[in-house]
Every structure is written in C-alpha cells, then in structure tokens.
Design a protein that fits this description.
The chain has 287 residues and is of the alpha/beta class. The chain contains 12 helices and 8 strands. Helix 9 links the parallel strand 6 and strand 7.
C-alpha cells in the first residue's frame, strides 16, 4: 500500500498537527486500546491515536461511555503507549473526571500523562469546561476540545441527536469553538453536526477541527476503529463507513478451528512436538 509522502517517519507533535491546518493537509485520527493495534496504526501513518472512552462500548460491554472510569482509560492508554507509536497519543477524559473543579481536572489530566503515557488529553464540552481547559493548558498539558454531540452528555441532550441543525444552534457551536481555541486547545473534535455548521466552525477558528459525522470540510476525520473494521456491530450511524468486515473473517476462522478440533484433525504432526527416539524409547520401555 502506497501511503504517499504523509507516511510518518518521526513522532507526531501538537505543533505538527497545528501546522497541517495551515498547510491544508488533512489529519487522520483513529481509536486504539491496545499495543498491537497502536503499532499497526502508527505503521500506517495515522497522525493521532485516540484512546477513547468508546472502549466502554467496543470492548467493555457497556451501553454508553458513562460507566467508563479514569482508571479504565489509563489502563488502555498504558497499553497503547508501550507500543511506542509515532502517532500522537490522546487520552480521552471520561465522564466526571474533569468537570467538578479546575483542581480535579489538573490532577486527572496529569494522571493521564504521567500514568497512562498520553501526550495530550481530550475534554468534552463547550462553555462549561473552558476554564478547565485553560487551567490544564496552563499547566503544560495539551488539550483537544470536543463539541457538537458530546456522548458523555447524552442524557442531557436526549440521546444521540445531531447538534447545530439551526442557524442559532450553529452560532452557539461557533462561539464554543472560539472559546475553546482562546483557552489554548491545540485542536478540537466536532461530532454529529450538519456539514454547513462544521464548515463554519472550521473557518472560524485557527486550530484544526477533526470531524466525526460532521462532513468533509473539517481539517481531519476520526472514526472508532472497531466500527470501521466491522468488529462492533451495535452502532451503525449514517456517518460510519465500514472499510472491512473483520468480524466475518474471525467467525470463519473460529468455525474452521472448532470443526478441526471436534474432528480430531487439529493438532496434527505439523503442530506437535516429539521426543528424541532415545527418550521415547526410555519412556515407553518403562513398566
């Protein structure tokens, strides 16, 4: 596969991410929760790896991201960081891990870097978290913002609904984006908004926007890897494009393995170990 000139040869930094917007180069972000996957994404030239709270849905069996804890994300962030990817590692701050106070935000974001090995954190929310973003950035921790549909607020929002569908709603999101930029964030995710709204936001701020269900005019795109590989089938939004059907591949392999075990075909001599002739003779010569 030809990855072109954008193949990552050195560690990606927040400086490089900012520079991509200025140069008009699209940013690629995907989720990962373990070392082998992180290595694959890095080798494929992915710019940003998000250790998302989506781990709750895709791997931990939760119906939403709400039950995911800071320790959960740190655990998976550690695994990703051990792969030493060239991609920039962003740790997703889970529900209620940063909203109580600036002190709480600083302590927990610090843990994400010190314990988890992340190089930046993602914080959901608009105006209500701007002061926390500013405090965290001021402490030397890079922050990625997240506006539009914020999954940690699904109960408040009434479910997974498209945001910014009206002119007034779009203006609110633009204002939130500007405040997040002013607070010092190096980029922001825009989730589940109309194309026109995402375009307006992207043109209104100087930091990169990364869309998910936000149309083609953002500075980059992000998907949950488990979704785009067809491994997690409970979530099928309009914006998702399935690039592979790994679930079917795994199912066929497991079925084949099961059939061979039950038929006594596996393991055969190729997959078994033998004693030397001398040791075999000693063993079977015993009474």
């Amino acid at each position: 596969m030809d990855l072109g000139s954008e193949t990552i040869m050195a560690r990606v930094t927040t400086y490089r991410i900012r520079g991509k917007k200025k140069k008009g180069k699209k940013i690629v972000m995907l989720t990962a929760y373990d070392a082998p996957t992180a290595r694959i994404l890095s080798d494929c030239g992915v710019d940003l790896i998000l250790v998302g709270d989506s781990v709750g849905n895709t791997l931990l069996g939760y119906e939403s991201t709400i039950p995911v804890t800071l320790d959960d994300v740190i655990h998976h962030c550690k695994a990703v960081s051990r792969a030493r990817p060239n991609s920039l590692i962003v740790g997703d701050m889970p529900f209620m891990s940063y909203k109580v106070s600036e002190t709480q935000a600083l302590e927990n974001c610090g843990r994400m870097l010190q314990e988890g090995g992340a190089e930046a954190v993602k914080i959901e929310g608009g105006g209500d978290v701007v002061d926390k973003i500013a405090a965290v950035v001021d402490a030397g921790i890079p922050v990625m913002g997240h506006i539009g549909l914020t999954p940690q607020s699904i109960y408040e929002l009434g479910g997974y609904r498209v945001q910014g569908r009206t002119a007034d709603g779009a203006e609110v999101l633009v204002e939130q984006a500007k405040r997040i930029e002013e607070a010092g964030a190096f980029s922001m995710v825009i989730e589940l908004v109309p194309t026109e709204t995402a375009k307006l936001i992207t043109e209104s701020v100087g930091i990169p926007t990364i869309g998910i269900g936000a149309g083609p005019y953002c500075d980059g795109q992000v998907l949950v890897l488990w979704d785009m590989l067809g491994l997690f089938e409970d979530f099928k939004p309009k914006f998702l494009k399935k690039y592979a059907d790994i679930r079917s591949v795994i199912s066929e392999a497991v079925k084949a393995y099961s059939e061979e075990v039950r038929a006594g075909v596996f393991p055969d001599e190729t997959h078994s170990f033998e004693m030397t002739e001398e040791e075999s003779g000693r063993l079977y010569g015993r009474t």
